[in-house]
Design brief:
CATH topology of the largest domain: Rossmann fold
Structural class: alpha+beta
CATH superfamily of the largest domain: P-loop containing nucleotide triphosphate hydrolases
Radius of gyration: 24 Å
Order of helices and strands: EEEHEEEHHHEHEHEEHHEEEEEEEEEE
Bound molecules: adenosine-5'-triphosphate
Strand order of the largest sheet: 6-7-8-3-9-10
Number of helices: 8
CATH class of the largest domain: Alpha Beta
Helix content: 10-25%
């Protein structure tokens, strides 16, 4: 069991509120990611769960039991840090066994648990090395093995992949998720990297300025952002203000667009969003967006990212790379109604 409940927790430093009135339920075995820009309060939230700092307000509960006053080493959490935080003078096996020794586990079962944990992160054979004799990726695995060795109820990750290069980051994130699933350990994961959050999480909590903006599955967050901030922070979005003409038709500066939602009364101001991949180059029919001037084309292999300017607004499109437009071209776009969303159902 490892359900986590945060009820209205807050923490200020002086008169600066780092986290305000944050409530969140994480189910047993669930992988939940706190995602947001630097300084939004992710780490402060994680540190409150770990017990390194205490909330000024609200309650933290594991399996229904309030743990605000329980010290970190009695909370049954395993933590993995960005910096790995390994003990440099200890060999790998002793690093991994550290928490077990602190808990008084006798030598023989401890050896077994260390071997099992190292096997889970594919580090067999490196038991006697010191951290300084390992690559960054191997050190990160030792940190992960150390966190899971104690079989915690809750795993906490603070930007664990930031120090790895891009390819290794993708590999290790799959490994972490696979291992977490296999062990079924409830996980709270902190990152500012939206691709990481979308790829790994059961649910994502998008935070800004100490508050939750939206909680949802990766698909909900990507497709139906509740606020302009979420739309902008997650994925490359086109966000344009306008007003309803009724019957699901909306007038904006860049053109007249349609949504499947036909119930917005005429005259109501709205914010519309659609993704770069939702912009289709208009063929023979009438485009929704006319006369867009191409101001940039970036080659990505299978597609090109095209930046266009329309009525003073910059929009992004993803188009096939076989017949890309050129800078200076004037082109039209269709945006299918099922791809255009009202931000926050506005
Ligand atoms: P990052 O991705 O940069 O780590 P974060 O979202 O994890 O950002 P936090 O570390 O939680 O952000 O910090 C939230 C805010 O609280 C920041 O403005 C930070 O400067 C402030 N803060 C955090 N810890 C302290 C502290 N001990 N004393 C004063 N201010 C703090």
């Amino acid at each position: 069991m490892g359900a986590l409940r945060l009820s209205g927790i807050g923490r200020s430093f002086g008169d600066f509120a780092a986290v305000s009135d944050l409530s969140l339920d994480v189910a047993d075995g669930e992988f939940v990611t706190l995602l947001g820009p630097s300084g939004c309060g992710k780490t402060t939230t994680l540190r409150m769960v770990a017990g390194f700092i205490s909330p000024d307000r609200g309650e933290i509960a594991f399996d229904g039991e309030r743990i605000n006053a329980v010290p970190p080493h009695r909370r049954d959490t395993g933590m993995v840090f960005q910096s790995y935080a390994l003990f440099p003078h200890m060999i790998v096996a002793d690093n991994v066994g550290f928490g077990l020794r602190m808990r008084g586990m006798p030598a023989e079962p401890r050896r077994e648990r260390i071997a099992e944990s190292l096997a889970m992160v594919n580090l067999v054979g490196l038991e006697r090395r010191r951290p300084g004799e390992l690559s960054g990726g191997q050190q990160q695995r030792v940190a992960l093995a150390r966190a899971i060795a104690i079989r915690p109820q809750i795993l906490l990750f603070d930007e664990p992949l930031s120090n790895l290069d891009a390819r290794l980051r993708e590999k290790v994130r799959l490994e972490i998720r696979e291992l977490q699933r296999r062990l079924g350990i409830t996980t709270l994961y902190v990152t500012h990297d939206q691709a990481e959050a979308l790829a790994m999480s059961d649910r994502i909590v998008v935070m800004d300025a100490g508050r939750i903006e939206q909680v949802g599955t990766p698909d909900e967050i990507y497709r139906s952002p509740a606020t302009r901030f979420v739309a902008d922070f997650v994925g490359a979005a086109n966000i344009v203000d306008g007003h309803s003409l009724g019957e699901g038709v909306f007038k904006t500066k860049v053109g007249t667009l349609r949504t499947l939602d036909r119930n917005v009364p005429a005259g109501k101001p709205v914010t519309l969003i659609w993704r770069a991949e939702d912009m289709q180059r208009a063929g023979a029919g009438t485009p929704d967006i006319h006369d867009a001037r191409v101001s940039g084309v970036v080659y990505h292999g299978g597609f090109v990212e095209v930046i266009v300017e329309v009525a003073g607004e910059l929009l992004r499109a993803q188009l096939p790379s076989d017949t890309p437009p050129r800078v200076g071209d004037r082109i039209g776009f269709v945006v299918p109604a099922e791809r255009v969303r009202l931000v926050g159902g506005s």
